[in-house]
């Protein structure tokens, strides 16, 4: 499996390119060292002492998601499917990010929980808490492996090292600054990485469009290719969704991707929520995902467009796509090889390394928090000193990185890693979102229903995956992931309702701050927010973002 992913593709980097990469790594490690000096307890290590301003956490929020899968996976999907890939941003991200900021962050931040599983503990008790914590930790190791695999691919392409060597070296680099500086090191590096990524990828979009004759030239070339003209229109996205029917495709995209997968990821994934929880006030926490939504809606122009350009400009991509045998994960690397001179190539490589490190660091920092607080402190070793749990967090950071080195080789078996990632989201995020949203708005839902709904939803998603793998159903593209997510959501809701009807609910006095109707409105306010200006109001910012993303859907639909 590993050897199949090693490639003769090489990037012709020169001395200046290596110097730029070395300078970037020096900054990364320096940030980790400086962040370490600010750590005095476990809250500093896991949640940055809840002391960061909104613009820092907002950029970190989006940069944590701008990882290997976002860069390489989305460019690969764009090379394969074209403009429908925009749905992962405009339908499958921004609306859920705005919902998180407006509706859900007050519950997370106001309750002072340290993780999403801890919220589940307070709402449903230890059953749902343990199921959520274990499944989340397992998912983060798998997703960190994706980021690590792609990071190793860059080292393999650049230096020609075997993938297994590159995986170890790349993992150790991330381990150094996360172990040293905890979440603060991850967040400050993510802010740096955001700007490096934009500076690295923007030239690919601009230069690529010039080479294909501008936007009209890209339209002509894509329309003449194997995918046809429909790859230049975001809707209905039949090939991406895996349906022949445009109606079913639209339903699958809106419900499966836009609602279940998207809301399940952005509103319950502690990797993202952790950044907002590190903010210095309630208002800042609410603004964090909303601020992140603005760059998120424009990221496709430096990720998706280069993938589409690569598919019609790079000879290997053109030949492979015509013959049906192409590794789409190489789309961006081919374009970098053919377009960028020395110096710019070094910056682009640093940008890719930055994206992969940001993604992996986000996964590892979320893993160590959930494992240390929710699993180890909750069920293994209780009532120990704060220093003890800080040391546990640092140790499991090492163990999680080693585990990610192993799961990186699972990712090596996929020609398009977005297929793999969406499958994982249907297993872990879709049922969690169903349980979470039902429990937040339905006070009657019982603790037993919480964990049984989670387990049933996950089993349903796995069942759809197995049926598709064994040929019982045939859904090409990412249709199986969309159907699996929908099945997980519906089964979770139905099972939770049935179990609630025959089990005992928690007393209402224990649900204040956890259920919307039982939470006093004043608990959503923070005295520190009185100093905020009118343009810093979360509702206003969310409204502007929503208008913009609707406009983008109309223009490119």
UniProtKB/TrEMBL annotation:
Major location category of this protein: membrane
CDD domains noted in UniProt: SLC5sbd_u2
Keywords: Membrane, Transmembrane, Transmembrane helix
Any single Pfam family the record assigns to this protein: SSF
Compartments where found: Membrane
GO cellular component assignments: plasma membrane
Classification via PROSITE patterns: NA_SOLUT_SYMP_3 (PS50283)
Domain of life: Bacteria
Entry GO MF terms: D-glucose:sodium symporter activity
Topology relative to the membrane: Multi-pass membrane protein
Entries under InterPro entries matching the protein: Na/Glc_symporter_sf, Na/solute_symporter
Transmembrane segments: 15-35, 55-76, 88-109, 130-155, 161-179, 191-212, 247-268, 289-314, 344-367, 388-414, 420-442, 449-467, 479-499, 538-556
Family membership noted in the UniProt record: Belongs to the sodium:solute symporter (SSF) (TC 2.A.21) family.
Protein name stated in the entry: SSS family solute:Na+ symporter
Organism, as annotated: Thermomonospora cellulosilytica
